[in-house]
Amino acid sequence: MEDENIVEEATAEAEKATSSRALYEAKMKFLGRTGKVTALLKGMRDIAAERRPAFGKRVNELREKLEALFASFEEKVKAREMREKLAGERIDVTMPGRRSARGALHPVTRVSGELIDIFAGMGFEVFEGPEIESDYYNFTALNTPADHPARDMQDTFYLTDEFLLRTQTSAGQIRYLEKKKPPVKMLSPGRVFRSDDDATHSPMFHQMEGLVIDEGITLCDLKGMLDEFARTMFSATSKTRLRPSYFPFTEPSVEVDVSCAACGGKGCPLCKGTGWIEVLGAGMVNRRVLENCGVDPDRFSGFAFGMGIERIAMLKYGIGHIRSFTENDVRFLAEFKD
Ligand code: DAH
Question: Please, are residues 52 and 44 in contact by the beta-carbon 8 Å criterion?
């Protein structure tokens, strides 16, 4: 009879529904506000009073049947949907991960670290002075008074009449000697500033200063230490040579060359055919500088040296232009990964 048709129809509709939503819509066709079973119930009022209880019972049974029917389909559909959802969210833990880019130390940081390692190994202590320096520490105490022609060797950025951006880490020698009395072995890295700009000069660059003061220190000690530095920094067969030079804070003063690591000293374009490359300035600390720091120059002597860190990095890694250090080109920086 009619009820069986409705059950059959509902079963067919439920079977067609492939999602919870479609199943719900199918269910509403029968049990919703405008659904077929609801319509039957609404039709009760047209039925003769004595037949109403039997009719009501029948429709209620039909409703219960359909509710059970849809409930069982709902369970199946929900279970399937859950399986599909879990399958879609499954993580393959054996899949290779995405690599994140790893940085590298900047070549200046790297060379600076290597220099500190070399000299710390010889007993030097690291000391950092300020970048804004007074005229006194940067020049006057280093035996370079206001009218001294050597001030023209460096184009200075003055902040006021008294303060400037330090042009050399040599200022650290004075500050250190004011605090520590000989014997001392000091190494002072840092940024320095000069009004200068071309392929090998930059208005900001880094220097590494060294200072050794004790009784009986001679130029031979400087030479021996430099040879050790060159062998560790450049190559096991590197040699150094001293050429006479001039700095107000040293006497005698020397310019130090290292044998060209690219050609082994035979002569090549890097060393302009000479077999030697200039790497730093040095000398025996001028008596006046020792006196300025309250150190007795008749008892103590010492040597000092100062090198450009970018210059050392350029030589070591064959870098052509000093601007490469500040351009932050990732392709350049990536070459310094270990
Ligand atoms: N301060 C010098 C410069 O900037 C380098 C230098 C030369 C430092 C001789 C020294 C030294 O300590 O003894 O060119």
Answer: yes
